[in-house]
Amino acid sequence: MKKTNSKKYIRGKFLAFGILLFTACEKTPEILQPEDSRLSFYNTSQHLENAMRTVYGSAPLSLDGSSVREDEADIRFDYITLGEWGQVMFPVATVNGTFDRSFPWMSFLSVSPGRHSVGFHSPDSLHSLLTETEIETRTGARSCLFLADSLGVYQTLFLVDESRAAAREARIRVTHLSPDAGPVELWVNGQQLDMPGALQYRNTTAFISWDIPENQADTLLRLQVRSTGTDILGRANLSIKPGETGHIIIYGYYNGASYEDPATGETVTISPDFKVRRLKYN
Q1: Model's pTM, two decimal places?
Q2: Together in a domain, 72 and 175
Q3: Which of 169, 172, 173 shows the shortest CA–CA distance to 210?
């Protein structure tokens, strides 16, 4: 069940950032406590997505030993949010109480700063532990824990953002979680990004910033993900305003394959599902 002591807690509300999807929708300011850390979860594992679709079940997460029973779990990847974007986030940003799948603003839980234990569990009735990890959240910082897999072997990636975009600045970072795409190069608006080298699997870029003139409301970033040759693997466009941060997630398999499930020994066939997805917050 929930931890409520002074060291570990989950605040009983979601912090919805940037819900300015339509002119009729307004973002209500949240009053954050000084000790707040903000935490989000994102699944890029096709292995887990397929398991959720098979049983029409949610995949619970445990935080600091909280319950993983599906009818009690506070945190879960919910199969009903798979949608056309093929992504699973928790929490999911909502507009007027309805899931928004057309433009994925990030939402965050409030948790106590410090070390936390997170477990990812199967969506079947057993809720078996798939993998677990230790993370450390920081005061006032936003963080995201990604679940990935390569041929059925689960892995995690934990990213922390302790900074903010400047008043007339927009910025992005790019995270590579595609198991078979190989190293990739990134191009924005026809220009290759200046990076130390190609972006490798389970790595992320530093924040890349653009100044937006005073007379300009936003800027459109046209992103291409290329192999280290000339092939364009995927594209995404992101309209971003001053003060906003974009997070581009590269994931899914570029090629089809089959493998033996490490847990069951069964043969699993995977379909190409390479994606370049956009997240955004401010």
Answers
A1: 0.83
A2: no
A3: 169
Cβ contact 121:14 at 8 Å: no
Phi then psi for 101, rounded to 5 degrees? -110, -5
Q: What is the pLDDT of residue 1?
A: 39
pLDDT value for 90: 85
Please give the helix or strand (H or E) that residue 49 lies within, else none. helix 46-55
What is the DSSP-derived secondary structure letter of residue 102? S
Residue segments in the chain with a per-residue pLDDT below the cut of 50: 1-32, 84
**How big is the CA angle at 238 (ends 59 and 49), to the nearest 5 degrees?**
15
Amino acid identity, position 30: E
Would you say 1 and 68 are in contact if contact means Cβ atoms under 8 Å apart? no
pLDDT on residue 3: 38
- Residue 113 confidence (pLDDT): 93
**84: how many CB neighbours lie within 10 A of its CB?**
7
Say if residue 154 is in the same domain as residue 249: no
Q: Are residues 157 and 170 in the same domain?
A: no
Asked whether residue 176 falls in the same domain as residue 210, the answer is: yes
Q: What is the pLDDT of residue 35?
A: 64
Say which DSSP state 202 is in: T
Assigned token pair, 22? 């339509």
- Given 162, 196, 211, the domain boundary residue is 162
- What pLDDT does 33 receive? 55
φ and ψ at residue 51, rounded to 5 degrees: -65, -40
In the DSSP assignment, the letter for residue 92 is: B
